[in-house]
Amino acid sequence: MSDEELDVAYNVRRKAGTELMERHLARYRAESERAVAGLPGHLGVGYDEASGERLDVWGVDGDGLRPVFIFFHGGYWFALSREESSFMARMLCEQGIATVVPDYTLAPKATLEEIVRQARAAVAWVYRHGREHGLDPDRIVVGGSSAGGHLAGMTMAGRWQERFGLPGDVVKAAMPVSGLFDIRPITRIYVNEYLRLDEERAAALSPALLPADRRCPAVFAVAENDGDGFLAQSRRFQPHWDAGDLIVVPDRDHFDVVLDLGDAESLLGRTLVDLVRAV
């Protein structure tokens, strides 16, 4: 593809338009605030000493350990935070599931290698310290939107767990939404102004190109009206993973599809609950 074609395929900001995109981002924060109002949890917990980054734990009630959904926010690795990213917490709490939403250092302050390390460190924190916060370390499900889907994919991949002292099956299931799994095209669009990747580094950071010694159950979700690049990414990675299903959510775009995770009656919400309960 030409650089112009790649920009059309992956520049969802341009596809949506500034006004619509800003409305969606405002909804992330507003719905997150509504979802966690009065919800039991632990806020601003440090999970990674090296970076000082923190996470929020939502939906634990002190009555036994709950399975946990770790959600990595999107924003093309250079925007957003955990404050806009807990909109599924109340719905999951009502279904007996806890939610963990980590921050990570944004590009260009951090390299993508460092961002991936932090995502994996968040998983390691849940495994090591989850019990102290009402989380079941043996029932960890990961997910994320867009760039967060890429980070979920990097925790699904194999051969990193040993370096963190984790079992190879620490991630029991996954649900990336509009994820990026082969990020080599990103080196040729505006996002690379922040990431500064070359193709070799991008390949090393692409879940679709990494070994997977164990393929956990997964659901790959994408919006019907998503960017063409994101549709292609999920359609290619799902059969490669060979242990998951593909869902194309009708009447949704790149920005609003993930909000369905907060609705227990939506296709995405029901699928997430079923996925977590099955682990």
From TrEMBL:
InterPro entries listed in its UniProt record: AB_hydrolase_3 (IPR013094), AB_hydrolase_fold (IPR029058), GDXG_lipolytic_enzyme (IPR050300)
Transmembrane segments: none
Organism superkingdom: Bacteria
Domain Alpha/beta hydrolase fold-3: 70-183
One GO MF term attached to the UniProt entry: hydrolase activity
SUPFAM superfamilies named in the record: alpha/beta-Hydrolases (SSF53474)
Keywords: Hydrolase
PANTHER family with a match to the protein in the record: AB HYDROLASE SUPERFAMILY PROTEIN C4A8.06C, KYNURENINE FORMAMIDASE
Protein name: Alpha/beta hydrolase
Organism annotation: Actinomadura soli
